[in-house]
Amino acid sequence: MENTLGLEIIEVVEQAAIASAKWMGKGEKNTADQVAVEAMRERMNKIHMRGRIVIGEGERDDAPMLYIGEEVGICTQADAKNFCNPDELVEIDIAVDPCEGTNLVAYGQPGSMAVLAISEKGGLFAAPDFYMKKLAAPPAAKGHVDINKSATENLKILSECLDRSIEELVIVVMKRDRHTDLIKEIREAGARVQLISDGDVGAAVSCGFAGTNIHALMGIGAAPEGVISAAAMRALGGHFQGQLIYDPAVVKTGLIGESREANLDRLSSMGIDDADKVYNAHELASGNTVLFAACGITSGNLMQGVRFFHGGARTQSLVISSQSKTARFVDTIHMWEQPKIVQLH
Fold first, then answer.
1. What is d(CA 227, CA 280) in angstroms, rounded to the nearest whole number?
2. Which residue, 40, 48, 125, is CA-closest to 91?
3. Which helix (H) or strand (E) holds 19?
């Protein structure tokens, strides 16, 4: 899978990032997202694969493209029969977030990126559009920290696993009303808190790399992004746990269905009978092969954002593979126009 799709999925996230970056700082988050979706889908439909969106822009009625269940790849083209034999193509599931952190792009803030994860059919958890309690931590803490423990307990464990004092730890938490008590507890335990307004995929993945100065992600964010984070952390060998949140009273901000009871019914209809189950990275991204790809839109802890110059742009991407056990940073210069030769007299 990596040999077949590796370079092309990098180009998919690059095109989405470039399209979105053109709207950076213009205050138009919906447009920044829309153009990223369109660019991602256009490039994806040129790949020789049989792809199915399992996490995307929502249900079909709400999203015209990259919606859950949409088929993507070369065989979706109208004249596909002229150059495509579906039986010969790899069949994969895809989770996408073409513009992770739309507000970050709209207001020119750091940390937004275009991301996707892929695995063979059935290899990614089809998370409902709910919220998820998340815990991400470095590989050294894998299996030691636990989402069921208090933040104070996990900070002590992190301190021991990473051989550093609690005061040296940096914990990323989304700035939300629901996290007031969590933030207070982390600070009282002695650790430092880095608050983010959006974009917790980047924060989770940063935990998997030394040198980012991010040692854990704690708190509640969107469930679909949790699956994408889990795919990356599984391939990196990092710690990731997620637990679906179905009670609007817990979330406090944002929409999460009509009621707690209605949400439980929806989970049951999706075959999720244990609504309180804690999932690890292997359960959320269970495929034999898992690939994660991201391209910076605005600069963050892991990647530079898109930088435009006359006639082109420069991007930085990241592709992580469970197959080759690699994490590759890709620096690309996109040359749309040949530079003009200026005659000096």
1. 10
2. 48
3. helix 2-21
pLDDT-derived band of residue 342, with 50, 70 and 90 as boundaries? Answer: low
Task: Please name the amino acid found at residue 236.
Answer: L
Query: 95 has which bridge partners?
Result: 55, 117
**pTM for the whole structure:** 0.92
Q: Is 56 exposed, middle or buried (0-12, 13-18, 19+ CB in 10 A)?
A: buried
Angle at which helix 151-162 crosses helix 180-189, to 10 degrees, equals 40
Contact status, residue 332 vs residue 314, Cβ threshold 8 Å? yes
Using DSSP bridges, classify how beta strands 290-296 and 278-280 pair: parallel, antiparallel or unpaired.
Answer: unpaired
pLDDT in tens, 301-334: 999 999 999 999 999 999 999 999 999 999 999 9
Task: Give the span between the Cα atoms of 49 and 253, in whole angstroms.
Answer: 39
Sequence-distant (6+) residues with CB within 8 A of 45 are 72, 73, 74, 76, 77
- What pLDDT score does 77 carry? 77
Per-residue pLDDT, 61: 54
Q: Which helix (H) or strand (E) holds 248?
A: helix 248-251
Write out pLDDT tens, residues 113-149.
Answer: 999 999 999 999 998 888 999 999 999 999 999 999 9
Average pLDDT over residues 201-223: 96
Q: How many whole angstroms separate alpha carbon 95 and alpha carbon 53?
A: 6
Q: What is the CA radius of gyration of the chain?
A: 20
Q: Provide the Cα torsion 290, 328, 101, 128; round to 10°.
A: 0
**How does pLDDT run across 169-188, given as a tens digit for each residue?**
999 999 999 999 999 999 99
Structure tokens at 214: 């991010």
Q: Single out the residue of 296, 202, 231, 223 nearest to residue 94, CA to CA.
A: 231
- Report the 10 Å Cβ neighbour count for 30: 11
The C-alpha atoms of residue 44 and residue 154 are separated, in whole angstroms, by: 40
Tokens of 210: 């030394």
